[in-house]
Write a structure and sequence with these properties.
Blueprint lengths: L2 H35 L4 H25 L10 H43 L16
Helix pairs in contact: 1-2, 1-3, 2-3
């Protein structure tokens, strides 16, 4: 088998495996965070979590597929390692950026919800106070 094909197969197996592992980890640990962001609404948190995971898979696996092609032919074993290190390094960086983007967006939603909760008075108003005359 051609060394380039061997590099492609290894790249796909490792990239898809990493994408699945990161998505499952984010999904499992993100449920608690989403429940807090969505004020304890577990059904909504589960639905948003699932949508985020699907989007994560689509973006990352699409990137892995687009980044698969290479113009160079790999002629030796060293070339396999060099090509894989470059390709997998970029895939890992993209996975990290996607993770940070998800956390950033969810944290912004959480902060906005916390600010909205702070603006609501702890007890309803019980009456009006007359304005005081200025001296």
């Amino acid at each position: 088998m051609d060394r380039t094909v061997v590099a492609y197969v290894i790249y796909l197996l490792v990239s898809i495996g990493l994408t699945i592992w990161v998505a499952r980890t984010l999904s499992r640990n993100g449920r608690i965070f989403l429940a807090d962001v969505l004020h304890g609404n577990e059904k909504l948190a589960e639905a948003v979590n699932h949508l985020l995971v699907v989007g994560f898979y689509l973006v990352n696996l699409g990137f892995v597929a687009l980044y698969l092609s290479d113009d160079e032919t790999i002629t030796d074993t060293r070339g396999i390692f060099e090509a894989l290190s470059t390709k997998l390094g970029v895939v890992l960086l993209v996975l990290g950026v996607m993770h940070l983007a998800n956390v950033y967006v969810l944290n912004r939603i959480r902060r906005r919800g916390a600010m909205e909760r702070e603006q609501v008075p702890p007890v309803p108003p019980q009456g009006w106070a007359a304005p005081q005359a200025q001296a």
